[in-house]
Amino acid sequence: MQSRQTFSSAGIRLTAVAAVLASWMVGAGRTPAADDTPPYPPQVTEQALRELVARTELRRPRLLMGPGDVQRLRQRAEGESAFRPVARAVLRDADAMLPVPPVERIMQGRRLLGESRRVVRRVMTLAMAHHLTGDRKYADRAGREMLAAAAFSDWNPSHFLDVAEMTFALAIGYDWLFDQLDVATRQTIRTAILEKGVRVPLDTKHAGWTRARNNWGQVCHAGMVAGALAVMEDDAEAAVQSVHRALGNVPLSMAMYAPKGSYPEGPGYWSYGTTYNVLLIAMLESVLGSSLGLDQAPGFDQTGAYPALVTGPSGSTFNYADGGAGRGAEPAVHWFAARYGRPDWLLGDAQPRQRALAAGADAESGSNRFLPLLMLWMQDASSADAVRMPLHWTSDCKTPICVHRSSWEDPNAVFVGLKAGSPSGPHGHMDGGSFVLDADGVRWAVDLGAESYHRIESRGMNFWSMAQNSERWRVFRQSSHSHNTLVIGDALQVAAGHTKVVRFSDAAVFPHSVLDLTPVYAGQAGAVHRGVALLAGGDVLVRDRLTGLKPGTTVRWGMVTPGSPGAAGQRSLALRQGDASLRLQILLPAEAVWALSDTAKPRNEWDSPNPGTVMTEFQAVAPESGVLDLAVVLTPGSRQPTPPDQINLEAPLDWKP
């Protein structure tokens, strides 16, 4: 495996870093040691940063790589077979961008974010193409893109993600193409980076994001640090302040990784926030010679495994919260794999990466904008050892998830993911107890994913309040009615409720997870527990016990699927997708039968359609005792059904390893 230092140590001034470390240690009453690592959270002072910035050797490029790395990029593209497809894809997209007009300041609702992301993709792709070929046409086209963005009246600081990504884009272009830009172009871009980016949160009211605890903190601080380090010769104090703010505040966002590297906003937002977090650390290391302690956040050294853990054999992710199930190319996973010596974290990466590399030329979108970073970070996954990755895993965090799978090597393996936490969590849905299921290479139980933010906001609806009466919960995809969980008396889950994992077993026999869902059904039931188990034969058991129900209350069990269902009205229901099949069998209660509910057609005019999906469901009525037991077993077509008398139908709280 390639050393983590290949593209991250250019220009390091070890004596300067050592001086800063010594300043920390003395200030904290500690004696510096040769092997001492920076403290976490970072404790570096502004004065120590001033000294470090003053001693830093300023060369170009400096962001993410150094001058000597440019030649190595070309050698890699020409001499290493794994990198040739990446270089071809970069050049393919760069060539398609040459005749396309630069971006314009076109807002979508309250966001300029789409244009910012286009600029990131275009500038990074064109700059990388120039370094791979030496051809000025790519540098000139990138220069026109940056000048167009620099001419915008502003970069929409009221939605600061837009500013952050635009600042990052121009910082990369300014730094990577510094010698190819004429003096006037440099001046214009440099002024824009400072006045429309870096200095905005330092000099204006647009700094409310600074102490964000979600992806905003990661993205925005990374963008500001990128801009500040790119032009630090011209405003060293802005560099000091931007880095100091990042060191003091990004740990608020990085707390999400504790203790085992999970991410409360789901895999889609993991890609967004974590990529920028990695960029922030990599830029600090490439320019200042150290992460200054930022990489010591608890769980950060494990989060490289997260995308693989939440990706099923179908290639779809466990897309809880606001996000789609598709997985794209993830250069950041390669960065983690190299840094921590874990090629097994690259499991599941090859297919989406190959799709991105083999796609047709795309000059317009902002998707896959970080693809050129593969030229810096990509690792060989041929030595990945699936045995090192757990078959069964739980996140043990504030937004708990559990995953169980039958194999890492079998493409027809069974995979189930189960969601706990709170609807009021970051980008939360009313999805307590919801699950996804893969078997025989396809996804059977799906999460419909995120609704279009602009679609809802453009109607004047309050999409971002997590209050119980918020219009957010009138959106079908956000509500419990669209998720693979229980609905009691047609009521919504309690938005403020927080569900927990109360049992987890990774035993070879009967691996399972049990959730206490009672808080999201407060006032609807006395207690609600859901257990999901992976049976020895490859079936999946979903077992619920509800107590304290009002007699006569109706409870809906539901699962959204892209499978084509057979005839309803019976206790067994067959689903098909191509040659694959899945059998759903109701074991409890005895009188329940399957029904089908349309999810493809929008429920309300503000809802998006969900083509190709249907809700498989049944209803059960609470008896006089108020106790209701539900059990469903899901059997893939490639497996023999486990006989019902061999299935553990005890209440979930009675399950044992």
Q: What's the number of extended β-strand segments?
A: 17
Helix count from the secondary structure assignment? 17
- The structure class reads alpha+beta
Helix content: 25-40%
Q: Strands of the biggest beta sheet: in what spatial order?
A: 7-8-9-10-17-14-13-12
Largest sheet: 8 strands, antiparallel
User: Distance between the terminal alpha carbons, to the nearest Å?
Assistant: 38 Å
Provide the low-confidence segments as ranges. 1-6, 8-15, 25-34
Binned strand content: 5-15%
Shape descriptor reads elongated
Compute the CA-based radius of gyration. Answer: 26 Å
The overall pLDDT, averaged over residues, is 94
Written account of the structure:
The structure is a single chain. The chain has helices at residues 14-27, 46-55, 67-79, 84-97, 113-133, 136-150, 160-176, 183-198, 200-203, 215-230, 236-254, 266-288, 306-309, 331-339, 350-358, 374-377, 453-457, and strands spanning 392-394, 401-405, 415-419, 435-439, 442-445, 486-488, 500-505, 512-516, 527-534, 540-547, 554-561, 564-565, 572-577, 580-588, 595-598, 614-621, 628-636. It is α+β, with helices and mostly antiparallel strands and 657 residues long. It has an eight-stranded antiparallel sheet with strand order 7-8-9-10-17-14-13-12, with no helix packed on it. Strands 1-2-3-4-5 form a five-stranded antiparallel sheet, with no helix packed on it. It is elongated, with a radius of gyration of 26 Å. The two termini are 38 Å apart. The model is unreliable at 1-6, 8-15 and 25-34 (pLDDT under 50).
